[in-house]
């Protein structure tokens, strides 16, 4: 079955780093745009970072310079490297693959002292 599974979330201190992984099964990330989204308590889900078919990356203004999205050479996993984390980054982070607009279950990231 086609599925996306996120991992790598957890509790981290402000200023710390985490790397999230999104592993695809039953589908290849080749020739597909994909991205990371997050939803914080009381807020709407928002786009964090996106990778196009051609490899172009886009980031939300709030994470530019701190987060980096990438895909592995086998096109089976997408990553989100998060540095200089802030409490306002606390959210459930989910990965998405466009066409067919497939979502993972999400992984919790909590930034707190």
Gist of the model:
By secondary structure, the protein is mainly β.
Give the key terms:
113 residues, mainly beta, seven-stranded mixed β-sheet, globular
Topology:
Blueprint: E1 3-7, E2 10-12, E3 18-25, E4 34-39, E5 46-51, E6 57-59, E7 67-71, E8 77-82, E9 91-97, E10 102-103, E11 107-111
Parallel strand pairs: 2-11
Antiparallel strand pairs: 1-3, 3-8, 4-5, 4-9, 5-6, 7-8, 9-10, 9-11
Round the mean pLDDT to the nearest integer and report it: 95
Number of helical stretches of at least 4 residues: 0
* Extended strand count: 11
Please describe the biggest sheet, giving its number of strands, its sense, and whether it closes into a barrel: 7 strands, mixed
Quote the distance from N terminus to C terminus.
40 Å
* Beta-strand percentage range: over 45%
Return Rg in Å.
Answer: 13 Å
What level of helicity do the residues show?
under 10%
Instruction: Write down the secondary-structure element order.
Output: EEEEEEEEEEE
Shape, per Cα inertia axes: globular
* Sequence stretches where pLDDT stays below 50 over 5 or more residues: none
Structural class: mainly beta
């Amino acid at each position: 079955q086609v599925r996306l599974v996120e991992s790598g979330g957890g509790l981290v201190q402000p200023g710390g780093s985490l790397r999230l992984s999104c592993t695809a099964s039953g589908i290849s990330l080749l020739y597909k745009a994909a991205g990371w989204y997050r939803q914080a308590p009381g807020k709407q889900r928002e786009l964090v970072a996106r990778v196009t078919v051609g490899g172009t990356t886009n980031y939300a203004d709030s994470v530019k310079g701190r987060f980096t999205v990438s895909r592995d050479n086998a096109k089976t996993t997408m990553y989100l490297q998060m540095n200089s984390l802030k409490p306002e980054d606390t959210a459930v982070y989910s990965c998405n693959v466009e066409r067919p607009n497939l979502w993972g279950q999400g992984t919790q990231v909590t930034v707190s002292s």
